[in-house]
Amino acid sequence: MSVRTALAAAVAAAALISVALSPVSSAAPSESAAPPTPPHGAPHHLAMRTNHVQLDSLEETDQAEETDEPNDPDAHYLGPKLCSGYYGEHRARNVPDAFGGHNPLSVCGYTPEQLRFAYGVTQAHERGAGVTVAIVDAYASPTMLADANRYAMNHDERLLTPLQYREVLPPSYNHLTDGVCESPSSWATEEALDVEAVHAMAPQANIVYVAAASCDDTDLMAALQKVVDQHLATIVSNSWGGVPHSIYGDEDPATMAAYSALFQRGGQQGISFLFASGDCGAVDPAAECATGSARPQTEYPAQDPWVTAVGGTSLAIGPFDNYGGEVGWGDRRSMLAPDGQGWAPAAGAGQWRYGGGGGTSEDVPQPAYQDGVVPTALSTTLMSGAKATKPMRVVPDVALDADPMTGFLVGVTTKQANGLPGYGEASIGGTSLATPLFAGLMADAQQGAGHPFGFLNPALYGKAATGAFHDVTPTSLCPGLSRPGMPPATVVDLGDDSAGVHQARLYQMGDDGLLSTGAGYDAVTGLGSPSLSYLRSWR
């Protein structure tokens, strides 16, 4: 069996959890350790969180494939019993209909080849040669290079050579046992996603992984400072963030000012900073994923005016790796009723789970590059619904694939179902995926242009309405696969659990809670997603 066939048969985004504003964890968000309340009068510092969505460990264990063949590659693929190798390949036929008919099975996890073709990298021929991308996360995986190359071999991709990949590590780590941060092994999943996604889009680019001593924003800022001071790269991918207004206090204004000054200085030196916009939409405290948020808001550092905020979409890739459309990422979930005859809650009334971060900042005035592109009604309406006295910064700037239902297949060594460390592959989404995908795409663009770009946003907004971006709307995801007037949806079919009960999930797509997509710039996908002409626009 080929790797591609095996993936189509055995891997997918099974039961998923959002970690948009909580540390990446195999536990439910409510079980994640909350950051401690700062002492009265002390400046509050954010414990930054990863922005990816991964498999639920309980259901991952229930659905793990057993094999008598220890060298069988299928043994490394984790996911539900049924899934699709491309969007719409298979329909879910052993579950109740929803939204007027059968719905597609979730994607098993897109491969690098599929994503390169869908976003125009294959057609443009640049692969990031001569460009260095820095990835900043907390801690460091001891198996990163080995995992990336095992993944590459499994999918007929170019290996990362020792000259192409290197790590810059701190002398020691902080917050290892006090509950402020998730464990280094949890952050390793984020690191693997970032490294493998950048390499997928820019196979010839150099990657330098810069580890922060912890998830505390002061440690992460120190890692970013190292990138700027030593000019380690010209593109920096950051798949983490936090809410500046939490129930524990507001982020220290001096810390945000220091971040912003660093981004501005780096941009002037030819360094582009990319940040994930978040995985919890407007971070509405009413949402399960918004633990700790004081009110609807935008994430930091994504809202900083000197960075490029990357939002999320649900991406359809067709049978020939062709681009099949996108909608803004936002998923509502219903579960198969115990009798198998219906969905609970009913289709259309599912629980809102997660979606691409975005919205209007209450902290940052509108930068000049957004003037005339972002609708005034959007830039002057805060997430609370109150009117701002002046236009404010709106997030994101661009968007790429982030929905775990249309996620990226990632390989990483982590604790497996038997409790022992081992290599496995599974589909992962989140704006933590969109950001390194865009970083790799920009490495290709830099190769084609022959020079670094530095601060990207003025040039990005200059491309508005030029054809460089897909205008993502509520109806732009594979219209032929959904019924007129019905939202797109997908089914995660987990098969029977250990008690013999059929388990499945129905995900309604394209609903980002308080945020919505529309023609032109919007607060879910920004300017849109890169089109097939995006790379040519930089030459």
What does this molecule look like?
The chain has 539 residues and is α/β, with parallel strands linked by helices. The protein is 21% helix and 22% strand. β12 (308-317) and β13 (323-328) form a beta hairpin. α3 crosses α6, α6 (184-201) runs parallel beside α10 (431-449) and α7 packs parallel to α8 (253-268). The longest helix is centred in the C-terminal third of the chain and has 19 residues, at 431-449. The relative contact order is 0.19. Keywords: Hydrolase, Protease, Serine protease, Signal.
Question: What's the arrangement of secondary structure elements?
Answer:
Layout: H1 3-10, E1 16-18, E2 49-50, E3 53-55, H2 57-63, H3 112-118, H4 121-124, E4 132-138, H5 144-154, E5 165-168, H6 184-201, E6 206-212, H7 217-229, E7 235-238, E8 240-241, E9 245-246, E10 249-250, H8 253-268, E11 272-276, E12 308-317, E13 323-328, E14 330-336, E15 343-344, E16 351-355, E17 359-365, H9 376-379, E18 392-395, E19 398-401, E20 408-415, E21 421-428, H10 431-449, H11 457-462, E22 469-470, E23 489-496, E24 502-508, E25 529-530
Parallel strand pairs: 4-6, 4-7, 5-6, 7-11, 11-12, 12-19
Antiparallel strand pairs: 1-3, 2-8, 9-10, 12-13, 14-15, 14-16, 14-24, 17-18, 20-21, 22-25, 23-24
Helix pairs in contact: 3-6, 5-6, 6-10, 7-8
Organism: Catenulispora yoronensis
Pfam family, one: Peptidase_S8
Keywords: Hydrolase, Protease, Serine protease, Signal
